[in-house]
Amino acid sequence: MKSYIKLAFAFAFCVLNAQCQSTNDTAKKSGVNKEKSKPNFIVIYTDDHGYSDLSIQGIKNDVKTPNIDNLARNGVRMESGYSTAPQCVPSRGGILTGRFQSRFGLELNGDSLEGFDAETTIADRLKSAGYATGMAGKWHLGPGNQITKHGFDHVFYKNSAQPGVANFNFEGKSIPLAAGTTKMYHLDACSKAATTFIEMHKDKPFFFYLAYRAPHVPLDATQKYLDRFPGKMPERRRQALAMLSAVDDGVGEIMKTLDENNLTDNTVIFIIGDNGAPLKITKEDKPGGGPGWDGSLNDPLNGEKGTLIEGGIRTPFVVYWKDKLVKGTYKHPVSSMDFAATAVELAGLSTDDKLDGVNLIPFLNGEKLGAPHDKLCWRWGGQSAIRKGEWKFLKGDDREYLFNLDEDIEEKNDLLAKHPEIVKELKKELLAWSNGLTPTGFSKGEMSKNANAYFDYYLDGKLNKKIKVGKK
User: Quick one: signal sequence residues (predicted)?
Assistant: First the structure.
C-alpha cells in the first residue's frame, strides 16, 4: 500500500511539474511573440535631395530610382512631405527627437548642441521598448564617437572616403567603438551596414536610421554608377543621379534582406529628404564636386536649400508598410517629425505630448479621414512660415507673402494684398506657435546675405540683376 501511495504521489508530481513547465513555456513564447509583433522601423534619410529626384514623382525623366519607386507604388508617396528646416543640422535634430528643433535651441548649423544632447531621441525611446537600435552614414549632431550616447547601440558612422567610426563589422560582430571602417564607397558601405544590422537583429524588433550623404557635395559617385547615366548633361547632374542610384541600390538590398528573413510584412519604412537641393540660383556646373549646386533639382517648386520657400523644405517622402496602407499619393501636409510619433505608438509606448508629430498610420490606412495636422510651422533664422490647408504665409525679416499652394505650388502669385484677413489669422497663429521656441518670436536674428539674395530672386522677381550667393 505504501508503495502504491509513493507511486501515485510521484505520478502526480510529474504531471504537476509538466503542467507548470508547459505554462512557463507558453508564457515565454507569449512574451517572444509579443516582442516579435512589434514592428521594425527603418528611416532612410537622404541629404540635399531635391523634390524632383525620384522617378515616381513623374517630374524628371533622367532620374532612376526603381527600388524606391516600388516602395512608393506599393505604399504611400507624400505630395506635401516636409522637413523641419532647410538645412542639415536642425532638420536632423527634428527628425531624431520628433520635436521642432528650435524648442531646444538648435535652429541653425553652428548653434550649440547642448539642447539636443539633453533631448530624448527616438532611438532612446525605442531602446526602452526593447528595440535593437543602430545607424549608418551621416550624423552631423556632434562627434561620431558620441553617437551611442543618443540611444544608438550600433554605429557605422561614415559619410566619405575617410575612415569613419564603427562598433560592428560586416561579419555581424560587435567590436569596440573605434575609427576605421572600410575602404568601400561610403554609400555602398552604409547599405552593407544596414543589411548586416538586420541580419544581426532579425529575431527581435529593431530600429535603423540610415542617413546617406547623398547627393550632398562633395559629389563623389563611382564609375559603376556614373556609367548608368550616359549622354549630354551637366556633370553635376550626372553625379547627383549616380549617387541617388547608389542609394536606390541600397534600398533594393535592404528589401532583399528583409524578404529573405520574412521581415518585410512587419517593417515600417520611411524615406525622407533632409531639405531641398542647393541650386545656388544659377545651377552652375562647376568642375569638380566641391561646394555649389549638388546636381539635384526641386522642380516644380520655387526656392532652394536655405529658404522656407517650398523648394527648401518640401522633399521626397515615402512611407511603406506592406499591405497595411492605402496605396497611392497622399495630399495632406505631413512632417518628418511624424516618424517619431508613429514609432512611439506602434511600439506600444505611452504617447508624449512633447512630441510635435502625429502617428500617420491611421491616416494612411484609411482609419482616420482629414488632415493629420491643423497647421505646420517653421522658423529658421530670419525666416518663418506657416502652412494651414492650402494657405501658406511666409515671412523673411520685413518681407511677407501669402500663397495658395493648391493653386500655385510654384509660389509665384503673392496674394497678401487680396486676403488681409487670412494673413492676419495666420500671422497670429504663427506668432503664438513661436512662443514655444528658444528664443521666442518670428525670427532668430536677421536673414543672411544669401537668404536675402534668394528672396530677391525667387520671390521678388529681381531676375535681371546679377545675384551672387556664397558657398554656405
Answer: 1-18
